[in-house]
Design a protein that fits this description.
mainly alpha, Serine Threonine Protein Phosphatase 5, Tetratricopeptide repeat, 16 helices, globular
Length: 283
């Protein structure tokens, strides 16, 4: 469902149909609008997001009530890391077309990123009211129930997602995380390992498995799991920090410092790594 480039290839014609230029005098403006939209589309497909965003803004000056213009501008802004403005654009798009499931999901994800979990849940609920068996919405609802510490709800939505699509690695992961919080570490590891059978490269799942081992004081298995994650992505800052924290708890300050130092080399602004390095260097 969520194939943005494919969608971009199709929507500009539909957008032009919806534009209301009320007189022949406006014909030239209509053609200008088409050119702006098509030009922005081409920039988006080429991943020139700044240029695309500028094109969509100019287009929206001529067609301020166009759903596709706001929706695609939101995508550009999200790619550019301007998440607050992206969310505003998604909400403008939804004000025009409240039943667009894709827009509801993308807006929900940004709300979840901002830790507005109730707002995210409301968007996912709206999406599920439209498409009750949408596995993406079901998984996301599971993750936001987890964020809200409703672990039974997280398990429920994860299982509903798997009933629709048994290959959803993220659903297995969400269920595993929730079971761990409920105290069922064996069940948690079963689901988390099952997640890896469907996506063996998912770093988040390796981290959750390591966290589960660590909570069981099996730090050796936690270190082994995170080391496997680094084989997949040697430059993953969070994994280096995770390893540093576990090694620090084990008293291996030298190796912990190595991972915190590596994390800082990759991301000099990483506060967790800087604090970990300070702790590992203290007497």
């Amino acid at each position: 469902m969520h194939y943005i480039v494919k969608k971009c290839m199709l929507v500009w014609t539909a957008a032009m149909v919806g534009m209301s230029f009320t007189s022949a005098v406006k014909a030239q403006s209509r053609y200008m609008g088409e050119a702006l939209f098509e030009g922005a589309m081409e920039q988006y497909i080429q991943k020139n997001y700044e240029a695309a965003a500028e094109g969509y803004r100019k287009f929206l000056e001529m067609a301020p009530h166009d759903f596709n213009g706001h929706y695609l501008l939101a995508h550009c802004l999200e790619h550019l890391g301007d998440f607050d403005s992206a969310l505003e654009s998604y909400e403008r798009a939804l004000a025009i077309k409240p039943d667009d499931v894709d827009a509801l999901i993308y807006a929900g994800k940004l709300l979840q990123r901002k830790k507005d979990y109730k707002g995210a849940a409301e968007h996912y609920e709206r999406a599920l009211a439209i498409l009750p068996k949408d596995s993406e919405s079901l998984v996301l609802m599971g993750t936001v129930r987890y964020d809200l510490m409703d672990y039974d709800g997280a398990v429920e939505y994860g299982k509903r997602a798997l009933a629709v699509d048994t290959n959803r690695a993220d659903a297995y992961r969400t269920i595993g995380m929730a079971l761990r919080e409920k105290g069922d570490r064996k069940g948690a590891l079963d689901f988390l390992r099952n997640s890896l059978t469907h996506d063996s490269t998912d770093i988040d799942t390796y981290r959750e498995i390591a966290r589960t081992f660590s909570e069981d004081t099996d730090t050796e298995s936690a270190v082994t799991t995170l080391s496997k994650a680094l084989e997949i992505d040697p430059g993953h800052v969070a994994v280096h920090c995770d390893l540093g924290e576990i090694l620090l708890k084990r008293g291996d300050r030298a190796k912990a410092a190595e991972h915190f130092t590596r994390a800082i080399e990759i991301n000099p602004g990483c506060i967790q790594a800087a604090e970990g390095l300070r702790k590992s260097s203290s007497q």
